[in-house]
Design brief:
The chain is mainly beta. It has two domains: 13-55, no CATH class; 64-206, Nucleic acid-binding proteins (OB fold (Dihydrolipoamide Acetyltransferase, E2P), Beta Barrel). Helix content is 11%, strand content 35%. The protein is built from two helices and nine strands; from the N terminus they run E-E-E-H-E-E-E-E-H-E-E. Strands 4-6-7-9-8 form a five-stranded mixed barrel. A three-stranded antiparallel sheet has the order 1-2-3, with no helix packed on it. The protein is elongated and about 75 Å long. The termini are far apart.
Length: 208
């Protein structure tokens, strides 16, 4: 280490890695006098290694995980171009920190495609708690008056039940519950920012 202890001038320093989640990466102390020298940041090389682990080496990352409850039943439709299944719904996700005068939850639009969409339409019901893994996607569309609308939504790539059991399939929580089927693990969300959701299947939350 190039630093030295400001108290005794010693260059014999030791680095103690702090526990995971701690505000600082490491603590530097003097081996001779035992006094604290400074807090150390995580080495850039290790930061990049962690980033590459999650991004495949591309340097960018777009990954979202949510757990929340459906505000309505799933809106299931099919694209006009090639009859591809697409489902839309909104998740109410409670905020951990609640501020006075602010909403207690965020209402997040989610879109699922193909087999994932069919799974959501078949098993997800209003009020159910579910989990979503996916990515954020932005797009825009023009309404019949020519007004442009901008949409930010979550493209669901993996979905599943967060409740211990799903409801009985009627949309009610009547107690006659069945064991939920295995979580959907399809990764078939083909559309990308260059292939946005067609205007023919705009979801209700996009309309003003």
């Amino acid at each position: 280490m190039s630093e030295c202890c400001k108290s005794c001038g010693s260059v014999d320093l030791k680095e103690t890695i702090m526990p995971a989640g701690y505000v600082h990466y490491a603590r530097i102390d003097c081996n001779d006098c035992g006094k604290f020298v400074k807090w150390a940041k995580k080495p850039e090389k290790q930061i990049m290694q962690k980033i590459n682990k999650y991004t495949g080496g591309y340097g960018d990352m777009n990954n979202v995980s949510l757990v929340g409850r459906l505000t309505k039943d799933v809106d299931m439709r099919y694209t006009a171009a090639n009859n591809t299944a697409v489902a839309g719904f909104t998740l109410a996700v409670n905020r951990r920190i609640k501020a006075e005068g602010q909403p207690d939850a965020d209402f997040i639009p989610v879109v699922a495609w193909q087999k994932t969409a069919e799974f959501c339409s078949k098993y997800f019901r209003k009020g159910q708690q579910v989990w979503i893994n996916g990515r954020i996607q932005t797009r825009n569309w023009d309404d019949t008056d020519g007004k442009k609308h901008y949409v930010t939504e979550i493209i669901a790539e993996e979905v599943g039940f967060a409740d211990s059991k799903k409801d009985d399939g009627t949309g009610s929580n009547s107690g006659n519950q069945q064991q939920s089927p295995p979580p959907q693990q399809q990764n078939d969300s083909n559309p990308s920012p260059s292939n946005p959701l067609p205007a023919a299947v705009n979801m209700p939350w996009e309309k003003q």
